[in-house]
Amino acid sequence: MNKNILIIPGDGIGQEVTTWGKQALETIAKKYDHTFNFDEAIMGHTAIEETGNPLPDETLAKAKTSDAILFGAIGHAKYDNDPSAKVRPEQGLLKIRKELGLYANLRPILLFDELLEASSLKPEILRGTDILFFRELTGDVYFGEKIRSEDNSFASDLMNYHRYEVERIARKAYEAARTRSKKLCSVDKANVLETSRLWRDVVQEIAREYPDVETEHMFIDNAAMQLVKNPKKFDVVLTANLFGDILTDEASQIAGSMGMLASASIGDGTGFFEPIHGSAHDIAGQNKANPLASILSAALMLDIAFGLQEEAKAVTQAVADTLKAGWRTGDIASAETPTTRILGTNEMGAKVLE
Amino acid sequence: MNKNILIIPGDGIGQEVTTWGKQALETIAKKYDHTFNFDEAIMGHTAIEETGNPLPDETLAKAKTSDAILFGAIGHAKYDNDPSAKVRPEQGLLKIRKELGLYANLRPILLFDELLEASSLKPEILRGTDILFFRELTGDVYFGEKIRSEDNSFASDLMNYHRYEVERIARKAYEAARTRSKKLCSVDKANVLETSRLWRDVVQEIAREYPDVETEHMFIDNAAMQLVKNPKKFDVVLTANLFGDILTDEASQIAGSMGMLASASIGDGTGFFEPIHGSAHDIAGQNKANPLASILSAALMLDIAFGLQEEAKAVTQAVADTLKAGWRTGDIASAETPTTRILGTNEMGAKVLE
Ligand SMILES: CC(C)[C@H](C(=O)O)[C@@H](O)C(=O)O
Ligand SMILES: CC(C)[C@H](C(=O)O)[C@@H](O)C(=O)O
Q: Of the residues B229, B254, B279, which one is the last residue of a structural domain?
C-alpha cells in the first residue's frame, strides 16, 4: 500500500508525542511492506507565530491532498487569558475540521486491564467498560454566529443544527452499533433545548432504519453522572459537538488518563487522527508527556483510513505489551508503580516500537 | 421567628420526598419555638394535568408572597419522548426561576464520611472533598431565543450573557469564597465561545475586587475530567447555567448519590430550595426514593433564607447521625450494607426526625 500522510504536530506536547505516532507508522510500513510518504505542516500557536494565521493556506492545501493526517495538539495559555484576542490557535483546528468536512469524531474509550488501578474510579466499576463515542464535529454552538456588542456588555453564540447534520452522524453511529453490541445511547438536553428536540426527532427517525439496535435517549446532565456511576452501561454514545467535548474528556478517566485516548475525525475529506489531550504547555519540552495516545491515533489511522486491521492490531498489541511489562509514564503510574518503571516520553515511545 | 413557607412537591418522587423536608421543618419549629406556616401549590406535569399550565398563576402569586419555597422535582417521560410537545413540565421550573429572579443556584457537595464507600470513586480520591458550586440560573442558552424552522429542517437556541448577569453571580461566589478557603475556579469554554470570553472577562474584572481570593479559569471539558480525577482540588466553582447543570450532576457521584444533594436558588425574590435529583418516575410511588436531599434542602432554607444556622446544623447533624447509625436507602447502600439496614423513603425520613 502506498499512502501520503501529513504530520501536523501543532503546539506544546503535540510536538513531542507526534514523533512517536509517526515512528509507529514507519515501523509498520517497514514490517508489513507498505510505503508511507510523510510530509509536515504547521497549525495553531506555532503557525500564528510564523505566519500570523492559525491555519495557513499551505497547510490546508496539503491536508486536502493527503490520504490521512496525524495531528498532535493545539492551544496556548497566552490566548486563554486574553478574552479579547482576535486570532487564536483553536481557530485553526475548528477551520480544518470544517474545511475537510470532518463531521464525525470517533472516540473509543479503550480500557487496558493493566491500567485499572491508575483510574480514580474503582476497578470493579471499570472492568468490562468499552465505549465508542460519536461526537458531531462541524456544527452546534461551535460554528454558529458569534456576537459581541461594541460596548462589551453582551455576547452570544448561536447553538444550531440542521436535520441533515444530525442524520449523517446518526447513521455512522448506528452502523457502528450494528458491529458491536447493538446498543446506542443518544445524549441531548431535549427538556430545555430546541436544538436537542430536533436532534432527538432525527435520531428517533434514523433508529427506525436500524430496528436491530436498541436506542436509549439520555439528558446530558444524567449522562455526565451515569458515566461516573456505571460506565459499563454505555456502548455506542452519540452526541452533539459541545456535549461530546465534555463527555469524552470526562470519560478519559475511565481509561486512566487523557494520555491514553486517541480519536478519529472522519466525514467528507481526509481522515484526521489525534490524541484527545491538549497541548499541556505546563509539561511541554520536559519529556514527560504520554506518547501512547499519539501511537494509538496512528493505529486508528491504519484501521479506519487505510483498512489495515492487522497492522492496527499490531500497534495496539505493542501498547498493551508495554503496559503488561510494567512500563508507565507519570500520568498512568499508580501508587504501586516502582519508580524504575516510570519512563519519559521518548523512552516510552521506544519501548513500544521494540 | 414567624415564616410563611410554600411547599411545591411537583412531579414523581418529588411528592414523596418533599413530605419529609416539610416534616423536618415542622420538627425544628416545634423544638426551637418558631412558627412556620405552610401552604402548598402545584407545578410541572401535575399542574399541566390539572390546569394545562406548568406554572399556574396561583402558584406564582403564592411563590412571590411567601418567605421561602421548598420544591420537590419536575418532569415526566411522556414529554421527553415527544420532541414536538409544546407544553412541558420544565417550562414551569424555568419560568419560576426567571420570575423570581433566582440567578444564583448554590449546590454544596457535602460528603458524609459514612458514604465514602457508596461512591464509584475511590475513597482516597474523595476524602476531604468539599465543593460549593455557584451555577448561574436565569441566563445562558436556557433562556435565549429558540427557533424551529417550519419544515423542521433546522433548530437553534441562542446562548447569551449580559455583563451584569455575570457580575452579580460572580460577586456572590467571591463573597462565599472569602468565608471558605479563598479559592475560586471559574469554568467556561473561552477557547471556543464568545459568551465564555465575555464571562472570563467579567470574572477577571470582579476578581480584582477580591485580591485575597485565588482565581483559576478552567475549560469545561477539563473541569469535567478533573472533577473525577481529583475532586479535592476544587473549592468554590463558578459557572454558567448549562455547564453548571452538567458539572453538578456529575459531582453528585462524589457525594455517593444524587439522592444526597440539596440546592438553594437565590437572587432578587423568594429563595427556592430543592434536591438536585429529578422526578425519577421509574421509582415513584414505591417508597424507594431517598428523602435526605429534601431534608438537606430544608436545612439550606433554615440557613440561607432565615439565617437560622443552629437549626440548620441540627438538621444536618440528624442526617449524619442516621447515616452513622448505619441506616441507608437503596441508592446509598454499598455491597457491605446489611439488608436489614436498607430503608424505604418513609422509614428513612422517620429515622432522621427521631
Ligand atoms: C481545542 C478545542 C477547540 C477542542 C474542542 O473543544 O473541540 C478540544 O477540546 C477537543 O476536544 O478537540
Ligand atoms: C429539569 C431541568 C430543566 C433542570 C435544569 O436543567 O436546570 C434540572 O436538570 C436541574 O438541574 O435543576
A: B254
A-B Cβ pairs (cutoff 8 Å, strict):
193
Q: Are residues A198 and A303 located together in one domain of the fold?
A: no
Q: How far apart are CA B291 and CA B15, in angstroms?
A: 10
The enclosing H or E element of B201 equals: helix B194-207
Range(s) of the domain holding residue B316: 1-105+260-354
Dist. CA B241 → ligand 2 center (Å): 9
Task: Name the residue facing A156 among B159, B192, B249 (closest C-beta).
Answer: B159
Tell me the pLDDT tens digit for each residue of B216-262: 999 999 999 999 999 999 999 999 999 999 999 999 999 888 899 99
Check: CB of residue B268 under 8 Å from CB of residue B101: yes
B206 and B301 part of one domain: no
One domain, residues A335 and A284: yes
CATH number of the domain where residue A63 is located:
3.40.718.10
Sequence-separated (6 or more) residues with CB below 8 Å from residue B196: B188, B189, B190, B240
Give SS3 for A259. helix
For residue B336, pLDDT beyond 90: no
* Same domain (yes/no): B4, B93: yes
DSSP state of A121: B
Q: Whose CA is nearest to atom 7 of ligand 1?
A: A245
Alpha carbon separation from A321 to A35, A36, A316 (Å, rounded): 26, 25, 9
Same domain, B243 and B161: yes
Q: What is the mean pLDDT of residues B270-286?
A: 93
Mean pLDDT by runs of 10 across the 354 residues of chain A is 97 96 97 98 96 97 98 92 87 97 96 90 94 98 98 98 98 97 97 97 98 98 96 97 97 90 96 94 92 97 97 96 94 86 92 88
Structural domain count, chain A: 2
Q: Ligand 1: distance of its center to the CA of A245 in Å? A: 7
| B98 interfacial to chain A (CB closer than 8 Å) | no
Lowest mean pLDDT among A41-45, B74-78, B215-219, B306-310: B74-78
Whether residues B126 and B220 fall in one domain? yes
Interface residue A314 vs chain B (CB under 8 A): no
Please check whether residues A140 and A98 belong to one and the same domain. no
